[in-house]
């Protein structure tokens, strides 16, 4: 059986200060390193990974979303492969506020797995993993949880299927809310 693994994608996980490694051919890897000459980063990488348009439409990244799993709090970089066991508990999500925003600005954090059951045959499409709303400022832990965190559950590929893509693109998205999310709106779910 092919190993099961997750690829964590955090929308707006930008501003990577690492220098480009010229020994790495950007066409060789599923998630090439960030090229500092790429002024459309992270958008260009999200197109490359087909997050745009599979998961979300066009957008403009406004902040950095920092996602950390596990007790060690190790940061998960864009496109990093981790095993499902590393994502069993809810991650910590951090982000910076724009200078003209403060603790009264509300945000919504959403995590989805768009590759259920497999990336090449996503018959069930997106699975909602986590939804936290009314996050005041950047205090994610103080937000209201509508959908508690459910870890991704990728299945192993059948040994006979040589073309199966077992990798799942777990995607975290953050939006600024125009105002508080009222109970009447929650009934739409």
Automatic annotation (TrEMBL):
Keyword Signal attached: yes
Top-level taxon of the source organism: Eukaryota
Annotated signal peptide: 1-19
PANTHER family, A to Z: PHOSPHATIDYLETHANOLAMINE-BINDING PROTEIN, PHOSPHATIDYLETHANOLAMINE-BINDING PROTEIN 4
Protein name listed in UniProt: Amine oxidase
InterPro entries documented for this protein: PEBP-like_sf, PEBP_euk
The entry's keywords: Signal
Organism: Diacronema lutheri
């Amino acid at each position: 059986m092919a190993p099961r693994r997750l690829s964590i994608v955090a929308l707006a996980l930008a501003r990577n200060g690492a220098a480009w490694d010229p020994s790495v051919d950007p066409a060789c890897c599923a998630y090439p390193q960030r090229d500092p000459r790429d002024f459309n980063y992270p958008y260009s990488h999200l197109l490359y990974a087909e997050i745009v348009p599979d998961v979300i439409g066009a957008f403009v990244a406004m902040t950095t979303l920092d996602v950390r799993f596990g007790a060690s709090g190790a940061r998960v970089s864009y496109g990093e492969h981790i095993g499902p066991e590393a994502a069993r508990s809810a991650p910590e999500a951090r982000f910076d506020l724009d200078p003209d925003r403060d603790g009264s600005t509300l945000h919504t954090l959403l995590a989805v797995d768009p590759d259920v059951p497999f990336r090449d045959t996503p018959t069930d499409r997106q699975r909602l993993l986590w939804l936290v709303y009314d996050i005041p400022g950047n205090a994610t832990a103080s937000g209201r949880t509508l959908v508690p965190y459910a870890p991704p559950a990728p299945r192993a590929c059948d040994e006979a299927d040589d073309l199966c893509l077992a990798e799942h693109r777990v995607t975290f998205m953050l939006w600024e809310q125009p105002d508080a999310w009222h109970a009447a709106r929650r009934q739409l779910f």
